[in-house]
Design brief:
By secondary structure, the chain is an alpha+beta fold. Strands 2-1-3 form a three-stranded antiparallel sheet, with no helix packed on it. The radius of gyration is 36 Å and the shape is elongated.
């Protein structure tokens, strides 16, 4: 859920409110109780990583990576080398027209 910033045009009170995106915009100021509350356009928030960090178990094991690489190489079609034959006259000269 996002955090929205609000400011009252009546008393100048500013605050942040943690609410659902589908929730209606608040109109009544909690300080002066006037209906002059405006939702401000925020800059957004930064990505926050919570917890003690990343773990070795969060990534694929070496055996999995090796098996995936072997499978990928075995599924590639093998290239065939073809030789192109040249057609030429018996003496190597162009025929007269």
């Amino acid at each position: 859920m996002p955090t929205y910033e609000y400011r009252c045009d009546g008393c100048g009170h500013e605050f942040e409110l943690f609410q659902q995106m589908s929730a209606p915009v608040k109109k009544k100021c909690p300080d002066c109780t006037k209906l002059k509350l405006k939702r401000l356009i925020g800059t957004g928030s930064a990505v926050m990583f919570k917890g003690s960090g990343f773990y070795e178990t969060d990534y694929r094991s070496d055996s999995y990576k090796k098996a995936a690489k072997a499978e990928k190489e075995s599924s590639k079609p093998k290239e065939k080398k073809t030789e192109s034959k040249k057609t030429s006259s018996s003496n190597g000269k162009k025929p007269k027209s």
